[in-house]
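Problem 12. The chain below contains 190 residues. Write out its predicted structure in token notation.
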Amino acid sequence: MNLLQHKYYLEESVFKPENLLREAKRQKGKKDGNVPAVCVLDPDGDLCEYLMDHNQASINECWACYHSKMYNCKVDGIEIGIIPNIVGSSYAVLVAEQLFVSGCKYLISVTSAGIINHKLFNKRFALITASVRDEGTSYYAFAEAKQKNVVCFAHLTNTMAQWEGDFEKGEYFGSIDTLRLLSYLLKRIL
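Solution.
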């Protein structure tokens, strides 16, 4: 049997993120409120850990997601929400859908990635504009399908373990560089 047969791709989904959040909010006893207008997915969790260790972030009491926690912090005086350890595009899209129905207007993802040819590359971050392999649940597919503001960056941190000392992201596991990137982006999107 072909799994792609007898599917109704043009039909509206019955599984809605707002309904999932409604039930999570009820079950977890979360208070009403919106998430910050700008939210950040921190797949490695390094930025969030740095901010928590330096008392610069606190738990968001309104975020009702079953699967993640959000932390609020300020970058250049602008409050943002950060969700650590969102790994994998399917999971990221599930969280992104919930973020946008919770008040998020701009979603930024900063993942880490390897450099294939180190000699030809001297940047710290790359704006991700396409993917080589796309299983259909990527940020790009989500942003296009839902018409949402999503931007993804790769923090270029290694050369695929080709030599000892690889995978060095920089000061505080790249958190300082990531904060500089967020500062730069916030000035342009808000």
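Discussion. The chain has a mean pLDDT of 86. Students who got a different answer should revisit the alignment rule from Section 12.3.
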